[in-house]
Amino acid sequence: MPLRPPFVMMFVIVASAWMLACQQANNTNAQTTTMTAGTTSGQSVWLGLVGDTADVQGTTQSATVLMGGSTDVDEAMRWMLSRAGGGDVVIIRASGGNGYNDYLFTLGAKVNSVETLLINSRELANNPAIERRVRNAEMLFIAGGDQANYVNYWRNTRLHEALNYLANVKKIPIGGTSAGCAVLGRLYFSALQGTVRSEEALANPFDARVTLGRNDFLMMPYLANTITDTHYDNPERLGRHVAFMARIVKDTALGAPVQGIGVEERTAVAINAEGKATVFGSGRAFFLWQNGAQTMPEVIQAGMPLTWNNNGQAVRSYVVSGSSQGNGTFDLTNWSLPQSGGTTGFVSAVNGALKGQ
Q1: 356 neighbors 349 (Cβ within 8 angstroms)
Q2: CATH code at 141?
Q3: How far apart are CA 115 and CA 32, in angstroms?
Q4: b/e code 319-328 from CB counts within 10 Å (16+ = b)
């Protein structure tokens, strides 16, 4: 079984700003290793590893988990871990600590190790050692934070390439919560000008804060033409999600209906290798899709409230309540009805007011 290079060699000197140190400690069940690598911001890059430092290559299963934020959904995390083939789990983030290390390592599905990387600059996202570390993962999870940082720091870097390699070549389970979920759709709200509330986006879909990325970041399986949103119930975000979709319809010739997946807090959508989604947790997931590629917004222009009505049927919706065992089946290869385990409806906007489910 090949060993990873020593950690002090993994994080090479980037200009003169890098300082390396390594500490190791053992207990009876697992090895915990910590490293400090100084960055231009003075923060630690490597936030520790729990488990075995040996690199293993398990047989993984492609999967995606979209988590809505707040308390993590244990059952969805176990579902991901079970598809990691007993390998190595990597958490990436641009702020925060290493709380996922012990949590995931002791959750019940055995893996070789869990480690956290704090990647808070483009310099770090382009570091070859960090890229190798990510490419060696058998499961990857993007923590919460600010998706504007993920776009600014990670897009068009070596890390960006590594993430798409994991999703589409190595085919490992990948998930994210809150901001980490927000960037998993091939269409995404980048928040580069800050967040925007539903009433603001509906009142003016061209508000400067409505910043949208399109097919230029993560290429996750089954999420083409799809924009995700999180914390759906805190505050209510269905309205802004519809406004985002309307802007994409207006601005982009996708050649197919625009789709959305919105996830409430303490809830997760788990998508398997065949594109079938089920919902874990205590809240709901919303599957939204443009009701026909020709269903265009009636009024969408700068400074004016959105009207996207189509006789009250502009956007189809399918809402699935989560459970501890996973509820419902929504086929992301076929955004049409019938599906199972949820309720059907329509959503529209009239003069900036949301109508429907």
Answers
A1: no
A2: 3.40.50.880
A3: 9
A4: bbbbeeebbb
- 51: nearest Cα among 87, 83, 93: 87
Between helix 147-154 and helix 158-165 the angle, nearest 10°, is 110
Q: How many domains is the chain built from?
A: 2
Long-range contacts: 12-21, Cβ < 8 Å, 24+? 12/127, 12/128, 12/129, 14/123, 14/124, 14/127
Query: Can you tell me the distance from the alpha carbon of 36 to that of 45, in angstroms, rounded to the nearest whole number?
Result: 7
**Residues 94-147 pLDDT 10s:** 999 999 999 999 998 999 999 999 999 999 999 999 999 999 999 999 999 999
Could you give the angle at the alpha carbon of 81 between the alpha carbons of 241 and 9, nearest 5°? 100
Dist CA 238 CA 135 (whole Å): 35
Determine how β-strand 88-93 pairs with β-strand 113-118.
Answer: parallel
Residue 349 within a domain: yes
Question: Which residues make Cβ contacts (< 8 Å) with residue 16, sequence separation at least 6?
Answer: none
| Total Cβ atoms within 10 A of residue 20 | 17
259 is in which domain, residue-wise? 185-357
One domain, residues 207 and 306: yes
Beta strands, E only, 133-204: 139-142, 173-177, 187-189
Contacts of 123 (CB under 8 A, 6+ apart): 14, 39, 40
Angle, in degrees to the nearest 10, between helices 158-165 and 128-135: 10
pTM score: 0.89
DSSP-derived secondary structure letter, 340: B
By residue count, the chain amounts to 357
Q: Which amino acid is at 32?
A: T
Q: Which two tokens stand for residue 196?
A: 């925007």
Cα-Cα-Cα-Cα dihedral sign, residues 82, 83, 89, 95: negative
Q: What kind and span of H or E run contains 180?
A: helix 179-182
pLDDT 10s digits, 20-67: 333 333 332 333 333 434 444 445 699 999 999 999 988 999 999 999
> Is residue 239 domain-shared with residue 341, that is, in the same domain?
yes
